[in-house]
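User: Round two. Same drill as before: sequence, then structure, for each protein.

Assistant: Same drill it is. First protein:
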Amino acid sequence: MVQELLIAAVGAVSVGVVYATAAARVVKQYERGVVLRLGRLRRDVREPGFTMIVPVVDRLRKVNMQIVTMPVPAQDGITRDNVTVRVDAVIYFKVVDAASAVVQVEDYRFAVSQMAQTSLRSIIGKSDLDDLLSNREKLNQGLELMIDSPAVGWGVQIDRVEIKDVSLPETMKRSMARQAEADRERRARVINADAELQASKKLAEAAKEMSGQPAALQLRLLQTVVAVAAEKNSTLVLPFPVELLRFLERATPPQQEPAPERLAEKPTPPVWPQQPPDAAAPVPTPSDAEQLTPH
């Protein structure tokens, strides 16, 4: 009798151990457990830790609640301005409702991947090339909205969508390079013209100030000469402006010019004293005439 009881106890313990082994489940911290009892969904979702199910009757589906990083394969498309491009992206999503992810969709990962590819092709057709290259934030938001709308019913939340790369044909790359080069040259010319305009205004103001003080112009000329002569590797040709001559002429005091030599005067005949009309004029002798003749 005791032996039979002992065998029954051992058998019961063995059955209990087998039952516990078959019913025991461990749900990890980043997972949630969805129980299907005879094919029907149990409302209680098993939290992380140790849990028990009914063997053979219950089936436990573990759902990963971590954020999933899924690359979207590159999609070929034609933009709204008729440019052929190849765009690839990456999508970040996570499961927020484990029961819906198990019941509402067969494979939520595959469903999200296909929806992302379809939405990416749709975004390419609705956008211009400039938007794809420079306005990616707006396109990312639109792509996220397009994927998130159907994914809500699957218990999936789209966390972020990013366009990684936009591949262009080689001809388009060369055309864009020429366009960028022409735009940079245009901006350089505009900046140069603006600088010339500002410099001309400043030079006009400087000339106006120097016109009141002629000495300032000469000092500026001398400063230029000093700056050029500091290199000592060129021949300096110094112009001599007329203004400098005028300045020196005004600055130099006038000098007395030497009196020119007096021209030799022609000899004038001697003037004899008049005699009274009644007196007889004396007749000059030869000796007197020789004395009066100038040598």
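Second protein:
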Amino acid sequence: MSQNINSEVNTVSYTDFNNPAGQTTIQGIRGVSESENVYIAGSLLSENNLVQGLIYEGTLKANGNEGKWYVVNFPSTPTAAVINTSCYGPNNGPHGTIQIVGSYKIAASTGKAPSGNLGFYYEGAIDGSGTWVQVSPNGGNTNNVFVHSVMGGIAVGNYDVENDKNGYAFLYNTSSKECTGFKVPDSLTTTLYGIWHNGGDSYTMAGGYTSPKLGKISQAFLVDYNSKTKETSNLKSFSYKNETALSIITHFEGITVAKDNGYNMPSDWITVNGEKNGASFVSVNRNSDGSFGEANWIDIDFPDSSVTSANTVYRNNILGIYVVENSADTKTVSSFVAKVS
């Protein structure tokens, strides 16, 4: 399916993008070095409701039929049977390898298996035959761990603790295997979903947070990070359409560099009355002093869908999932690419 939505300023074209084997959830993307191809990370829900990790390498053309799909799963052991692998962020590794971050689950019948998700970092061949490492922030005292994005030797993600409603963000050094906590000042919860390596020690991170000052309102944010000094700078909050009165939740789901020293982000949001949740393509440029400017918002709404979610971004392409409600009280979930021009 492909359809264009025209406006006075922008045109958004929508195309399905799915693995032929089953329900596909796209969750991350990165351009392949020295190539027009991309890596796409996600998950595949098979007929027996088994969730497996999914990696695509190829072009963004032809609904995903011009590239190759790989099913990759965190390896099971005799004492730990992995039943769920979900790939969130791909990246270029050394010497033509790929790096992947995400989460996995162990079967409850396996000894003292944790009930929640565990985080992982992978490096090696695209077929999953390389090295898999568990990522354990907070000294392993976690209920759920999700590693969302990796670039320049640093991954970012989130975890929660049992019986604690707050969410916590962290950075993971892929070389030292060390985790460092991150929190937006005075926030109740902080999430980190995207990281972009600007070069050298400079990174820019994206996510969302809640704070007592905002009440029930959650905002997205961008912040710069120096990996040498471990200091952050230029923190800026964002709300849907730049109006806090419009949304109760605004969140950046990833980040990519854009022209003119700016960035593009996929964003999900929920209106204040809770009646609508939607997605947007967001672009932000830097001011002359290095701070972030105001955001430009372009809504993403897959035609004839009941829900559209923006999960990742590459150049001027937003990728995510959409839901179609069928007549028999069933829902179909599919992935898409939306190109903004």
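Residues 143 and 164 are 9 Å apart (CA to CA).

User: Perfect.
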